[in-house]
Write a structure and sequence with these properties.
four-stranded antiparallel sheet, four-stranded mixed sheet, about 20% helix, disordered N terminus
Amino acid sequence: MKKIIILGIIFALSGCDNTGQATVSLTSQQKKELQTFLQRAKSEQVFVQGGTFWMGDFCSKMRNGGPYCTPDKNNKPVHEVELSNFSISKFKITHENYVFYLEITGQPKQHFDKEWRNKTLSDMTFLKNSPAIITWTEASNYCLWLKKETGLPYSLPTEAQWEYAARNHGQYVIVATDDGTLRLNKKTGKGENFATDEDRNEVGEPNGILPSLISFPVDKYSPSPLGLYNMADNGKEWVIDWYDPDYYSKSRKKEPLGPDQPVVKDRTGGQYLKVLRGASNPTPGFPSGLTITRYYQVKDPEAPLGTTARCVVNTTTPTNTNH
């Protein structure tokens, strides 16, 4: 019997594989639903031609020795990285998709040990097609389940893959939106290509939800030129890498995967840290929502609020024939 972590609660399931999924018998209807789900997941993959780019705070290099983009030491030094072709989901994993995955694999619903946390989870997934709120293990297990069901090499993206895709093949793009900026409507205070406090207030206040908890549908705003949605906002995204503040100074050039072993342990909970990319609620004029910003969090927090993910497929040819 193997143990899995569901939002900080340990459940034991008999007949599970190494992704924490129970062995269940599906009805003919469920099998049809599963095949439709898997076809849609493959169709939402965006093919990314590999190449070489300068990863990290590229501004000084771009400016021929001028100032950096930010004073943040966590995204330095800039270093050259070479990646093979891969595909990445245009969307973050939605709450509905994650619920389907739990149901089809016979796993319990997401549940916290404290009612206020359950209420918070409900508030954060109030809108349809909003991002799933999941731990690193849950995100990884979801991608590995897609690997098992499709036979394709699904996984969480590496930090390098995430940044390369967010920067439109590693170009000098500082914000992964449709035009490389966080664009505001000055009259209304609403975002034109990302969600602002004003947007969240409009939804949260009438529904008795703290506005800062509101997550919007994953396709609400226009995608980046590469066709990716919400790379700059709507939830920080787990990547496969362990967190090491010094990793950029010793990263290998070709296909970096992050440290081989866990490096930094949280002082209070005793868990090791994983890297997160993207942002939840970025603010124009501040170093948030940037393609180069690195965050970190314990691998399986008790309350993974605002953390989500998207999957990649590590093949050199497209999985989506539309690309």
